[in-house]
Hints:
Chain B: Residues 407-464 form the Cupin type-2 domain. Chain B: This is Iron-containing redox enzyme family protein. Chain B: InterPro entries: Cupin_2 (IPR013096), Haem_Oase-like_multi-hlx (IPR016084), RmlC-like_jellyroll (IPR014710), RmlC_Cupin_sf (IPR011051). Chain B: Pfam families: Cupin_2 (PF07883), Haem_oxygenas_2 (PF14518). The structure holds 2 protein chains of 2 kinds. By secondary structure, chain A is mainly β. In chain A, 6% of the residues lie in helices and 40% in strands. Chain A is built from 1 helix and 10 strands; from the N terminus they run βββββββαβββ. In chain A, a hairpin with a 6-residue loop joins β6 and β7 (65-67). Chain B has 3 domains: 9-132, no CATH class; 140-376, Up-down Bundle (Heme Oxygenase, Chain A), CATH 1.20.910.10; 378-478, Jelly Rolls. In chain B, 53% of the residues lie in helices and 12% in strands. Chain B has 15 helices and 9 strands. A 4-stranded antiparallel sheet of chain B has the order 2-9-4-7. In chain B, strands 3-8-5-6 form a 4-stranded antiparallel sheet. The longest helix of chain B has 30 residues, at 278-307. Chain B is globular and about 70 Å long. At the A-B interface, β4, β8 and β9 of A face α4, β1, α5 and α14 of B. β8 (78-81) of chain A pairs antiparallel with β1 (140-142) of chain B.
Amino acid sequence: MAVVTFDPGHARFVIAGNLRFFLSTTDGHVFHLLRAACPHRGGPLHLGQLDADAGTIRCPWHDGEVSLRCLQRDAAPLVVRPGSATAVVPDPGGEPITVDGRLVLATRR
Amino acid sequence: MQHKKHIPLDERSKSPVVEDYDVFAQCLQAYGESDLYADIETWLVEDNPYRRPLRPHVFKYLDFRKPLTREELLTYTSLTASRTLLTLYESDFVLLPRRDLASKRADLEEFYGRRAQVLGAVVRPWLESYLFSFLDDTISVSGRWTLASMKEYFESFLAEERRRTECPMASTLLASADPAHAARTCLLQLAGDFLLESSAMGRNAGGHYGPLQSEMFKILIDELGYGVHQTRHSSLYEGALESVGLASTPHTYWQFYLGSSLLLNNYYNYVCRNHGRFFRYLGALFQAETAFIALCRRMADTLRQIFGPRVDVRYFQEHAHIDGHHSRMVYDKMILPAVEMFGEGIIPDIVRGFEEGKLLTDIATQDFIDQVAWSDGSAHWKSLAPAIHRNIEKSHDKPRVQRFVEPRGELSVTHVHDGDELCFIQSGTMRFVTGHERSVLLHAGEGTVIRRNRLHGAIIESDECTYDIHSIGEVQRWLS
Lengths: 109, 480
């Protein structure tokens, strides 16, 4: 396990080894660091379409509806407080953990 | 046989028990009708733990409907809520004056009386919700927490604490224009909590919760000095206060507590009074016991630097030592066994309490720093007043103004404003107070800028004083 701290106002994507996570919220208060790989074929869920009412993200590859509840159940442990976020992610085994500000569509903006 | 429909927890209302705001407002006003909470004509309340000015005449103008946001924490309504809530919480504790109980007996009866208890039972949950709901919106704890990820998270915090070299509180004291005054201000902020040392924690002494209870008790008996009064931590703190010329009876300096100091004190009662928040308290306790180690070490050094060898720093030395043990005890003997015993589902509560305690401590520290800076700048704020007043006179868009005519000795109990204000004297003399034994004298034609959220009071020192309070909103606007 490894701890990573970042500014959630600027960075919304975390890469730890071969795992990718993105920051998502449906209400602007509770944030989740969700696995970015669609459980179907690994599509980029962060570029999917969030439907907060239905509780799903539509994967951009095959239009599969992925349950937010399932994604949140397996989300990385995360704390978001004013100006900073801290997550605990799987140890990438010597590889650096990177955080970047790439486009995330599957979140309330 | 009919069964009531079960409502899942997350679908139930999160509102306080009494949902009718008008009922709450009526109870709050009725609670404030007691003489115990009325305005007084002195700055200090010596050796009477029941008397606490709450400015109850203002209650009816305040709106507690909507919980505070992070940005509103230091407003006047928040200060009132915090003062009132702490008063309510402390009616659970045994508070006795040192001397002359007979003359205070009626106050005691009223403070603990049935009327106060009944009204308090309605008022307290509202004020808790009003003050602390922002934490839910400000701190998000999510994801699949496991024992391993929690350990990693806290180990990271401990490593950060070990690396920490800066202490904003100590730096502020040393950099102040009057370090001794700033240090006394700091000590009296902490007195609200430390003179009742561990009273909030003591709420967890009872009950039946296995080995955790025994571990909690070990920490508690350290705090209470193992039954030897001279070694009680509150006794040590009394020594610290007295060594720098401050009174050591609880809440003597009630009027000079910053809203954020009260908020932090209230928080520990909030998570300890309702045992449904027990796991949050474990997190908050771990944070406090750990962060206190370095803080106390620095405070001992800083107080000696400021006051010399006469200052009694035993309280801080004791905590610099024993909290090393307490931090370890809370983590190894309470948090880890609790997770093992009750499952990983309690971890988000523990982490939440930890983060909440940290956030509220940071807010209180920054508020203290801002208050010291504003108080240090009294001469500057006074010097700006004539020019601002001239600009207001010339302006076509004048700010709201209230005129007051007050007699000699009239004391305005300390309070804050939600925006910048200009206090300008038309006639007579006012002593404008920015802290305990710190003030600036204002004569006719003089005034001062009262910055937003800064605690202040005033007393009239002429037979009569006429002064205006201009609600200027933001001081910069009136300086050009």
